[in-house]
Design goal:
- Helix content is about 15%, strand content about 35%.
- The protein folds into 2 domains: about 5-55, no CATH class; about 65-175.
- The protein has a 5-stranded mixed sheet with strand order 7-6-8-10-9. Strands 1-2-3 form a 3-stranded antiparallel sheet, with no helix packed on it. A two-stranded antiparallel sheet has the order 4-5.
- The protein is mainly β and about 180 residues long.
């Protein structure tokens, strides 16, 4: 939360009431894009006075459902057995302030539904897996899904290893393999 002014407020202007006498009210709204919090106290007239508020970006809620990106990353790390493997994070929107806590090498393309199909191909000189973790809502974006073939011309196999709010597509690349793309 950005605003922590309630921690600095005192009840000096209300000498007849102790902190125990005052009713503290907290409102918490956990949404898809942000988390908002309001803290208030009941005044002498029974109305609530807001004494603090704060908000923060929400990254773990989608359509009212809380999901755990940490679980997704754990499943990828358990599946990976090559130190060269890569986690490619493809969010539907801007997740610029998201920090992925993983031991793996990571890449990210923000606004992936629009950007990922246009970024060109990935090639490797050594065999490895690329774990593409993307917002499951992008499964309905035909251009996004079709771009996995053109963006990974050395792909020898692919499989979905996780599919909830986040889909994880494991793509195995082999430097000796190259799928010819139609011109």
């Amino acid at each position: 939360m950005k605003d922590k002014s309630f921690a600095r407020r005192s009840t000096q202007n209300k000498p007849n009431k102790t902190a125990v006498d005052q009713s503290i009210v907290v409102g918490l709204d956990i949404g898809t894009t942000k988390i908002a919090c309001f803290v208030g106290i009941k005044n002498d007239h029974g109305k609530i006075e807001i004494i603090s508020k704060g908000k923060s970006k929400s990254i773990g809620v989608k359509q009212g459902v809380v999901f755990n990106i940490g679980e997704t990353i754990e499943s990828i790390e358990k599946d990976s057995n090559n130190p060269l493997d890569v986690l490619f994070f493809l969010p539907a929107g801007d997740m610029g302030d998201l920090i992925l806590r993983t031991k793996m090498r990571t890449l990210a393309t923000h606004f992936s539904g629009d950007n990922f199909p246009n970024i060109g191909s990935f090639k490797t000189s050594q065999a490895l897996n690329v774990y593409c973790a993307y917002d499951s809502s992008l499964n309905s974006n035909k251009k996004f899904i079709e771009s996995f073939d053109s963006n990974f011309p050395q792909k020898i196999s692919q499989e979905i290893i996780h599919s909830e709010m986040i889909t994880v597509l494991k793509i195995t690349l082999n430097p000796c393999s190259s799928i010819e793309q139609p011109s």
